[in-house]
Amino acid sequence: MALNIATFKTRAATSGVFVAVMLLGLLWNNWSFFILFSIIHFGCWAEYQKLVALIDPGYKDISPFHKYGVRLAGWCFMLYFTNDAFVFAGIKLHAIGWWLAMIAVFMLPIIELLFARQLILKNIAHSAFGWVYISLSWGLMMDLRSLSETWLTKTGHLYQMGFVIPLAIILSIWANDTSAYLVGSFIGKTTFSKISPKKTWEGTIGGAILCIVSISLFAYWLGFSWVDGAAIAAIAAVVGTTGDLLESKLKRMANVKDSGSIFPGHGGFLDRFDSLLLATPVVWLYVVLFIK
User: Which strand (E) or helix (H) includes residue 56?
Assistant: First the structure.
């Protein structure tokens, strides 16, 4: 796969703006992080519902209460997983999320019956998958951000896990995607999957290796455990690639090239965050089992 200079320039320019906005949201404070992922959450949901409606035309007939209600209910997952780290006017977002989620669980089926006159299980299943695929993933990302434990690095610096781990996942995804794209562009020959013909085995393997090595060295240089750095990078590379293939499969079923067009050269929210959607829950599990 030859390197397309025009495409590379477009992707690079978009990536520059994208990285700047992402870093601002990630590094400024807890609230900028929450706002950033709230926007990403609703953006992913809008594109997911569009894709599902193209795959299954019956999903187009869901009522507006169903369409927007499931998005809001999914956002409640994010509120619930903020734990004690987010407090507004003396009220924890965690508690607000809990009560809103309980209200949604009872009200959405009732409203659906009133306006749609029937419960179509297939449409409910599509929305339920969206909750797991999108809302639970971003909820677990908020849970990681809410970690209050600290690391004392070998260099003598004290870092909060809730700050380091989400950043490590995202940097690993970026490192893997960029490395895989460059390696695949220069030496990629063998198609990795029919689902995503542009991906090559050379690019996928080379990207994963470069991602793991670079993140491990970066962690070691900062004084963190290079083993944890390597593990997070490996999860991002392997599971993130699976997430990319899953989203590519959805697009093929919907017969579209991109899930959206908000990021020129990169597509939409799902195109940009497909890897992170699947990698986040697995990293969360690794953190719970081996780091906390």
Answer: none
